[in-house]
Amino acid sequence: MAEFTQRIFVxxxxxxxxxxxxxxxxxxxxxxxxxxxxxxxxxxxxxxxxFVHGTARNLINNRxxxxxxxxxxxxxPDDLAQTGLAGQLDDRERVRVLHQAxxxxxxxxxxxxxxxxxxxxxxxxxAITLGLTSEVVRTRKLRAVRKVADLIRKRMSRT
Length: 159
Prior knowledge:
Layout: H1 2-16, H2 19-38, H3 48-69, H4 91-103, H5 107-118, H6 123-130, H7 134-158
């Protein structure tokens, strides 16, 4: 299998333009090939190279397809925690404004925030529970936090 590692890596880098993802793909391909060999899915040993190449092509295409279906990741701005609320409202008013902002979120986004902030769950755990990918969970959480912060800022600018 070592003789295929470099070829798979080069193929993956050319297709993904990401060396780290390519390293993961090499491992995924080698694991898939080993499992397939153990199951006896390769009929002709002379065709091992073609089998490895086809497996690599399929897994790389799957990765690219999955990435293209994911919403783009956006980093959180550094000033997100600075909503400008400190000292402006008493605690009850802050809670009321926060609840109003949370009520305007989609139910699944609200659930993602609850699982993250209240239950302390990681995106991978949330993804399994909701049947999503961890990338989608991270993106939805980011957008929900931004939306809540924006709604609070708008509410505060009116008072």
